[in-house]
Design brief:
Layout lengths: L2 H8 L3 H8 L7 H10 L5 H15 L15 H12 L2 E6 L10 H8 L7 H20 L5 E7 H5 L5 H14 L5 E6 L1 H4 L7 E6 L7 E7 L2 E5 L2 H17 L3 H22 L1
Parallel strand pairs: 1-2, 2-3
Antiparallel strand pairs: 1-4, 4-5, 5-6
Length: 269
């Protein structure tokens, strides 16, 4: 059946079918059941699974507004949907503070570097980063968040000394949150993790195989759903976690670099 066929048979508008199929709106359980009946899907287990998925989709705390969809990648849109359902996120960043933990000044600095983005692209991506921070980091009901940073990240200046010092102070404060754990891979051990790109593993339930991987590289990003990929990146993360500085030592290292920057500002007066 075409989209028009479905719309006519259910007395829906064509735009409603298109919005559902395009992922612009979450399908209600009532509409889902109408679709399943039309498509003659009667297997009880499959109906139950799809109904549970529909309820989960309707529970999403936030989604990308339709007017923003053109300014973020499809993979990032998927990531944000998965983040709202995650029970735990494990992230590795070898280059930058992750977007969800960036201060406004660092986010503006990074987005100003260009890469062909329009002013509207930058505005939307800035708003998305700030919204993700609220939902992932500041939300007391959000997912558990474990982050590994290469030591170079805390030593690499972004913006001026004032901006970077404030970012590191914010990072140290975030590391004290109940649901956030942060570790740094010391420079002398970082070669052991190989040439891994930035990645996140999102656990969607207590089942270790119920997860997805989000990867970022210089000119793109992507979502990987294969359980074998999830297991590979989870093992890589766990190996990196073991060779990283403990959380208390990480906070001291981050704070020490922030103090060094503050001291340089004092001497510049």
């Amino acid at each position: 059946m075409s989209q028009g066929d479905v719309a006519r048979k259910l007395s829906w508008s064509l735009s409603k079918v298109q919005r559902i199929e395009g992922g612009e709106v979450a399908v209600s359980v009532t509409d889902l059941k109408a679709l399943l009946q039309l498509y003659e899907v009667t297997d009880a287990a499959q109906v139950d699974r799809l109904t549970a998925d529909a309820r989960a989709a309707r529970r999403q705390r936030w989604v990308v507004p339709p007017e923003h969809r053109a300014h973020v990648t499809p993979a990032l849109r998927q990531l944000m949907q998965f983040e709202t359902e995650s029970v735990e996120i494990r992230a590795y960043q070898p280059v930058l503070i992750p977007g969800a933990l960036q201060t406004p000044a660092v986010a503006e600095t990074v987005l100003s570097w260009g890469n062909g983005m329009s002013d509207e692209d930058r505005r939307v991506r800035y708003e998305v980063r700030m919204a993700r921070r609220q939902e992932i980091v500041e939300n007391t009901r959000g997912p558990r968040f474990r982050l590994i940073l290469d030591e170079s990240v805390i030593n690499r200046p972004i913006g001026n000394a004032e901006i970077m010092a404030a970012q590191l102070e914010s990072l140290a404060a975030d590391a004290e949150r109940d649901r956030v754990r942060i570790r740094v891979v010391p420079m002398k051990r970082s070669a052991e993790v190989g040439l891994a790109d930035a990645f996140q593993i999102l656990n969607l339930s207590a089942d270790e195989d119920d997860g997805v991987v989000y990867r970022e590289w210089y000119d793109g990003d992507g979502i990987q759903l294969d359980p074998n990929d999830v297991r590979y990146y989870r093992q890589l993360f766990d190996d990196m976690w073991e060779i990283s500085l403990p959380e208390d030592a990480t906070i001291r290292a981050v704070t020490a670099e922030a103090l060094r920057l503050r001291s340089s500002l004092d001497r510049a007066i």
